[in-house]
Amino acid sequence: xxxxxxxxxxxxxxxxxxxxxxGVFYGGELGEQIKSRVCADCWVEWQEAEVMVINELRLNxxxxxxxxxxxxxxQEFLMLDGESGAGGTGSGPIGPGMADAASGD
Length: 105
Ligand SMILES: [Zn+2]
Hints:
The protein has a domain at 8-77: Orthogonal Bundle (YggX-like). It is mostly helical. A hairpin with a 6-residue loop joins β1 (8-10) and β2. The protein is built from 3 helices and 2 strands.
């Protein structure tokens, strides 16, 4: 196939049409998801966050369990949680209505 360096994706995280992530070292289904749903900017952001996650949780690349934990963090960070958008529920990162249902009196 020809070089796909200028491919554009609709990013799951920032919701923009932007150049696809490059240098994705994940394989399989997860790798495909990243390549098709994450933009280059967000991928770079994750790579920075990843270092912090690894340090914070003391993850070990040799350990399959650590790899799984890291992958989960990544999916969360990149909003790749494999939910098909049928129903449109979780569209509210900000929830100002905390005291909303508080009908005192
Ligand atoms: Zn993005």
